Amino acid sequence: MTNKYYQGRDVYVVAGTRTPFLKAKGKPGPFSAADLAVAAGKKLFENLPIEPNQVDETVFGCMMPSPDEANIGRVIGYRLGCGKKVPGFTVQRNCASGMQALDEGLKDIALGRHDIVLAGGVDAMSHAPLIYNRQATNWFAEMAACKTAPQRIAHLLKWRPQMFFNPVISLLRGLTDPMVCLGMGQTAEKVAHQFNITRREMDEFSVTSHQRVAAGMDAGYFKEEIAVAYDKNGNVYETDDGVRRDSTVEKLGTLKPFFDKKFGLVTAANSSQITDGAAALILASGDAVKKYNLPVMGRILDVNWAGLDPSVMGLGPVHATTPMLMRNNLTFDDIDFMELNEAFATQVLGCLKAWESKEFCEKEFGLSAAFGSFDRARLNVDGGAVALGHPVGASGARIVMHLLRVLRRNNAKLGVATICIGGGLGGAMLLENVDHVI
Predict the structure, then answer these.
(1) Confidence band (pLDDT; 50, 70, 90) for 200?
(2) E strands present in 129-192
(3) Catalytic annotation, pick one of 82, 95, 351, 361
(4) 11-128+272-432: which CATH topology?
(5) Is 351 annotated in the active site?
(6) For residue 345, which of 34, 205, 257, 434 is within the disulfide window of CB 3.0 to 4.6 Å?
């Protein structure tokens, strides 16, 4: 397929790896975000004929680096051995931060500024901190301003338990949209209401996600992309640990709604999991592929970003993917496989129903008919975030990497990786399965 949108050089995905996605278990997990990204990067370079110091730049998406990981994109590159002279930076586009990192590498290579870029995404969500509330912060500030012992004693007497035992939970605050004051789960409830999605539909989709991940594990589809991680105590992490092989619609049906406890349908089980994980990819120009005899996983043909009502942010993939396919004169009949990140089961179902809705497509895209139906047998064929988890900064990079593997394994040509984004955004990438420079 001719690359019509990007007028610069073609950009190839050379290789990709990720860590196991590790479910948060009520306390900080064994790895920091940088630890995870470095583990993924090390495996990446083990199998390539180039060294880390031969990349032109590192760029990583991350939503919640620790205080010790400022500009984590630079930290990751330095720890991987890229050296002092290889620049690095960090991007943040909520759930699509990893995809944004790939887009940054894509643009620099297409423009001729770079030939090889290490890009990806990471988040250790279990490490999200508790933050002092404003009362406590002001109390500390006023204590620091006290000059004498009597002033300090008087100020100590102003201490109240609620200042310190009611912290801000940064993870929940980060998953709440500041413009519409809705949590991400509440936006999923709105999508369910808009498209009349039932609780059973959500639970059936979730069970299918777990079943497909389990089948992919048994077939070895994930093993080839996962970098084994070792913690400081010598424990080994080889596989994703969020999948529940015993999931059934009946079991999921016993759970109570989590985000709207009185009227809601969205539960913890039909939502993506809070997870730690990283994904890293190497992007290269055709010149670099030839010069260093690099392998090729595929080619990035197009990227599109879209904005929409933040209160239904889950429909972002529809708003991002549809215009991208239209400008490339493509329909769903031309797309062999799609990876649509499973933030919530109802959000994926809502996207499918939006594409099938004449009214929606006429209103949003000016079409005279529905855009079309996408075959669920070709959607998230190895499961998704409901079973694997959704480390916010990493997911956009993971779905791109995994989609290229799906295309290769099925000898298919074109795929779309797409993701909804908190804040009312959507992102999509059009990928082509090629194994050589075109």
Answers:
(1) very high
(2) 130-131, 168-169, 176-177, 182-183
(3) 95
(4) Peroxisomal Thiolase; Chain A, domain 1 (3.40.47)
(5) no
(6) 205
